[in-house]
Amino acid sequence: MADFEIVKKNKMTIVGIECRTSNDPNACPVDIPKLRDRFTKENIFQKIPNKISHDIFGLYCEYEKDHTKPFTYLIGCPVNSTDGISPELTIKMIPEARYALFKAIGEHPKTLIETWMKVWQLQLKRSFTYDFEIYGSPFKNNPPQVDLYIAIHQ
Fold first, then answer.
1. Are 8 and 97 in contact (CB under 8 A)?
2. Which H or E run contains 152?
3. Helix (H, G, I), strand (E, B) or coil at 25
């Protein structure tokens, strides 16, 4: 079973590009890599002003109901201001919340997918508001690490 800890995160603003998808085998496994490729090819990271770190977020939000229904996925960065944000970019404001924090350590994306599978099997009281993955400095470690935050009810 997946080990996790309960943490509180302050409100954040994430800026990036988004798509609408679902966990259907013909959607998410195609849509998210395509969006990540666009993020890289169009050098979106450099187009985001006011970044507070070099972390890249994979944000899951606007769930229609739960993980079995469509949701919005955004890849972007945390910022301390929305001044100067290009209209081509999307801004998401994440309120302060409690999260179950999982650490996907090892071969990417294999361990991240395995971690998500475990999350779906757990009896967490998820809020289905804002879940996110952080690809930061730990991801550059060997083995790679992605921190997965699952929003839970207070």
1. yes
2. strand 145-152
3. coil
Contacts of 112 (CB under 8 A, 6+ apart): 104, 133, 146, 148
Distance between CA atoms of 20 and 26, rounded to whole angstroms? 13
Residue type, 57: F
Residue-wise pLDDT for 82-125, tens only, equals 999 999 999 999 999 999 999 999 888 899 999 999 999 998 99
What are phi and psi for residue 106, nearest 5 degrees?
130, -160
DSSP secondary structure string for all residues of 50-73: SBSSS-EEEEEE--SSSTTS-EEE
> Does this model's pTM top 0.90?
yes
Q: Tokens 């910022």 label which residue?
A: 79
Q: Are the C-beta atoms of 131 and 60 separated by less than 8 Å?
A: yes
The span from the CA of 63 to the CA of 72, in Å, is 7
Tokens 């590009």 -> residue: 17
Tokens of 51: 């970044």
Q: For domain 5-152, which architecture applies?
A: Alpha-Beta Barrel (3.20)
5-9 average pLDDT score: 97
Q: CA 1 → CA 4, 66, 68, 81, 97, distances in Å?
A: 10, 21, 21, 39, 24
